[in-house]
């Protein structure tokens, strides 16, 4: 600095410098700056001023003090001292203030403090609020000097005042006797003091009576105020509508009342339309379409996170507002807008929103899996809200068996899905990925094994086989019924009915008659009548010998087997022999089923011998016990003495009848032919000859 008397200099590497000297007040100055280095020196332009006070920057005001007055709860008086004597400089001042906890300063207009003064009254402050106040000063001449630094903070709390109306609201809860309502409130935004109690009045619609209640509260100055205060729980089981009025009290007095009608169901018109919530610069902005209703008084904006509830009230002309409350990122809030119609709550409109989204903290939990043969149903739990950290955009199911991995994308509201088609009796590993707009998270792996057989498959096979077997059995039974004759013919022998046997008619005492054989019976016996003449000639000579052997043949009567042979037994040739001539030729028939009598041509008075049949057919009672037939009323044939003077004609007739009687044996339908004695053979027989064999009614008897 150079003046007419002296020159001062100061060296620095900065772009500013302090010159320590006696300030040349009211003197002219010329100022310039020189820059030096090894290559030389450069000098700036010279600045000339007529008054050195043009460059003055004073110290901040001194002794800043705040004074509050109880009668002015919204103002504070600020006092300070000049940093320099008025003989040297006339100063103007600037004042700024802010509530405690805020970083936004409010400035007093310069037009109010441009005079050389030492006090100022701050107005329009909030009652019962701590303020920080600072003061700065500068030369009063325009464009002269620099503002001084701000003074130290001066702190003071404004006096208390009457509180504003409290914020009254309700929330619902399930009670024992029905729906219950919780009446809640918040301290007034402008409490203007320390709230000591709430005065509540409740009017019931069924009788119109008022119920007064005082709820004391303890609000410490140092402790933070609670967001929500629970006032009372009301049951709406027998009340359709209640009116609640609430007022807040502090040391100064009681606030105006706020009333609200509470009902089990919302009242008024429909909800607001086009509700949307979007984050912007760390805040949630709520927008809706306004309702044109004259009875509308205000809106209530409610946001809920878990069990935490908060709300704010806005004017009826508002359709866009920011939520004024503490919000946290990655937390889901359910935001609702309630229209209020003359203290009556209307129907709300609700939506969900996040202040900030992120990837989920964990994936969905697979809690159940129902496996089948070719499919498996997965059931998982939704991610809890506090771990979701954003809106789920989709779920992706991954499942693999071996080296092949498959993926399926599902909508965000899915909680179950059926995987198909799968392989039977195969192990699968499955996991689910949940995604948001900021990331995704996989769940833990879950394993399951499909069934080896489909449910009901084994039962179906068993039922089918059983039905098939039953069908075959029924068909076999029906076949047996319709083909009974064929089966009986092939499986069982056709045994003749002994009851139809005519062997009992073989008696000389009965008249010989020819009976026509039945269709079911065929004769399996052929009787060859040979040597009839010889038998006739020796008949008289053998009478004596026959009587001698009578007892012998009577003893063999029941053991001869006559009549006990089965028609199905193998045909055998019966041989008749005599004691006197063992070399007698065999003249029996080819097929004889019982016993036949053969008379040789050279018969010499010999007694005929019976050959026993090998049949196992039991004898008829009439054949085994001939004596019982007479007592039982059955047919009984007696033996009468034979007359020796039988004519030849009678003998021929006797042999004809014998041939017809032999046809009554039941046949087994073999290819056998009836062989009857010819008329010529009977005519050639001697008239005096008698038959050596006669059919007996009670078995065979000796002739």
TrEMBL record:
The keyword Acetylation does not apply. Residues 60-161, 360-453 form the Fibronectin type-III domain. Residues 497-519, 550-651, 679-703 are annotated as: Disordered. Keywords: Disulfide bond, Glycoprotein, Membrane, Receptor, Repeat, Signal, Transmembrane, Transmembrane helix. Pfam families: fn3. The chain crosses the membrane at residues 461-482. InterPro entries: FN3_dom (IPR003961), FN3_sf (IPR036116), Hematopoietin_rcpt_Gp130_CS (IPR003529), Ig-like_fold (IPR013783), Type1_Cytokine_Rcpt_Type2 (IPR052672). Residues 550-559 have a biased composition (Basic and acidic residues). Residues 499-508, 608-619, 641-650 have a biased composition (Polar residues). Belongs to the type I cytokine receptor family. Type 2 subfamily. This is Fibronectin type-III domain-containing protein.
